[in-house]
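Morning F.,

Quick status update on the modeling queue. The single chain you submitted on Monday has been processed. Sequence for confirmation:
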Amino acid sequence: MLPPLPDRLRTQFLGLIGEGIGPWIDGLPDLVARLCRDWDVELQATLDDGWSAYVASGVRHGQPVVFKVVPQAAEGRAEIAGLLARDGRAVPTLLCHDLTAPALLLRHVPGRAPTQGELSARGVAGLLSRLHLHVERPPAHAPQLIDRLAAHWQSRLTANRPLPSPLPDRLVADAAASVERLCGSWPRPVLVHGDFEARNILRSDDDLIAIDSPAAVGDPGYDAACWILSEHDGNPDALRHRTTELADALDYPTQRIWQWAWPLAVDELLDKLDQPGWSQQSIHDALTLARTVAPTTVLDCHSAPPAELLVSRT
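Structure tokens below.
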């Protein structure tokens, strides 16, 4: 008996990808059953913490495993590419994979998610240094970071305009241009995690392990800025201090992390404006963060954000 697909996950897939994902959802039980037979896996329970993939716990040859099927094919294949390249280095061990599905079977890593503020900059820098493999050419199915982000920001520019409370086009375009400029100005590309937020880090014994990595090849500052923003607690001074600490531990320019934080903060704000259910306070916090990390030139142009951005989304 396969663990059922939770209604919550079905709703999330439809919201994340759209109605076109319906046939994939309908075919998921047969796909999972086939892979479990091929890989000799007995699934036990669907995990609640997956929001962009079907994730279940199980057993293979007496050992605990994690089974994952990703509805967005490019991201799933990129995750497999990163796991193959890292070969267990600071990531779970990949036991089996299917690029067509795409699906992967991982050795279970016992651990817990760190609480906010628990991780030191030095500890995070150590994890990033193990993840960031220097590469001359992308592994198969791992895209260039600039290609992934360029497509993402093009969709952002298009999706922003019809929003009930859109951001000014020039502001979104500036964030997109910042991404292009940063990607094109770093000479030593590495295999980045691609979604290096606090929720994608596990503390296992005395070690840190990264999970859910849609790998890409590009500037390591992208991962650093992702973590900095995911740890933000509303205190701008603490944000600046944490940025400096991480930059020093990585031997990476502080200003570049800050520059990466700007488009990432705009992206987070657009997420909240685009999705129903966010409170006025959540949108206000995201807007405040974007203004905190914004370049001076942007602040000069947008010193008075439109009041309609602060309307309740509940």
